[in-house]
């Protein structure tokens, strides 16, 4: 098992954490561009912006359904139904609220 030490800005080194590289780290997610919506499929893991009264943050989510719409490359009109991994809630979002994993 390969681990790395994570040091958080503004904290002491006693607050460092050791994390598993394979299970706890991933590449940076990329904002989904309107012309890239065809790259997202049902079942994909994405990051989706969830807005609530107490906080608005990006969370891991899985795509449950997609309502594809005709549109140009500058504005996506598709609607993505996502289920957030942390609380199992579902939300319909536009592509402007989604980030995808880098292509392999």
UniProtKB/TrEMBL annotation:
Keywords: DNA-binding, Homeobox. Residues 3-99 form the SAWADEE domain. One of its GO terms (molecular function) is chromatin binding. Coiled coil: none annotated. InterPro entries: SAWADEE_dom (IPR032001), SHH1/2 (IPR039276). The keyword Repeat does not apply. It holds the Pfam family SAWADEE. This is Protein SAWADEE HOMEODOMAIN. It comes from Turnera subulata. The lineage of its organism: Eukaryota, Viridiplantae, Streptophyta, Embryophyta, Tracheophyta. The gene is SHH1.
């Amino acid at each position: 098992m390969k681990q790395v030490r994570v040091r958080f800005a503004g904290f002491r080194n006693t607050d460092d954490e050791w994390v598993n590289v394979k299970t706890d780290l991933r590449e940076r997610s990329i904002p989904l561009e309107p012309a890239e919506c065809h790259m997202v499929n049902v079942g994909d893991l994405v990051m989706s912006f969830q807005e609530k009264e107490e906080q608005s943050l990006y969370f891991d989510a899985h795509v449950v359904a997609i309502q594809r719409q005709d549109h140009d490359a500058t504005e996506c009109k598709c609607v993505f139904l996502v289920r957030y991994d942390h609380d199992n809630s579902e939300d319909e979002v536009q592509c402007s609220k989604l980030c995808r994993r880098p292509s392999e």
